[in-house]
Amino acid sequence: MSYKITDDCTACGTCIDECPVDAIKEGEIYSIDADVCTDCGSCADVCPVEAILPE
């Protein structure tokens, strides 16, 4: 299982620094590479707009 970033993402960058495996990629809306994500939930814990959810 991995996490997914929803359209609510504001591209603030907070989650990128928290990901221990660099699974998050920048963009207008950030994205998470499901093949790399280890389902740790660190990104979801720090997202200020709660745009990251378990898939």
Describe the structure.
Helix content is 18%, strand content 18%. The protein has 55 residues and is an alpha+beta fold. The chain has one domain (3-54): Alpha-Beta Plaits (2-Layer Sandwich). The chain has a two-stranded antiparallel sheet. Strands 2-3 form a two-stranded antiparallel sheet. The longest helix is centred in the N-terminal third of the chain and has 5 residues, at 14-18. The termini are close together.
Q: Which terms would index this structure?
A:
55 residues, alpha+beta, Alpha-Beta Plaits, two-stranded antiparallel ribbon, two-stranded antiparallel sheet, 2 helices, 4 strands, 18% helix, globular
Distance between the termini: 6 Å
Report the structural category: alpha+beta
The name CATH uses for the topology is Alpha-Beta Plaits
The CATH architecture can be given as: 2-Layer Sandwich
Low-confidence region ranges: none
When the domains are counted, the total is 1
Number of strands: 4
Mean pLDDT: 96
What's the helical proportion of residues?
Answer: 10-25%
Radius of gyration: 9 Å
| Gross geometry | globular
Biggest sheet: strands side by side, in what order?
1-4
How many individual helices? 2
Main pleated sheet? 2 strands, antiparallel
* Helix/strand order: EHEEHE
CATH class: Alpha Beta
Strand content: 15-25%
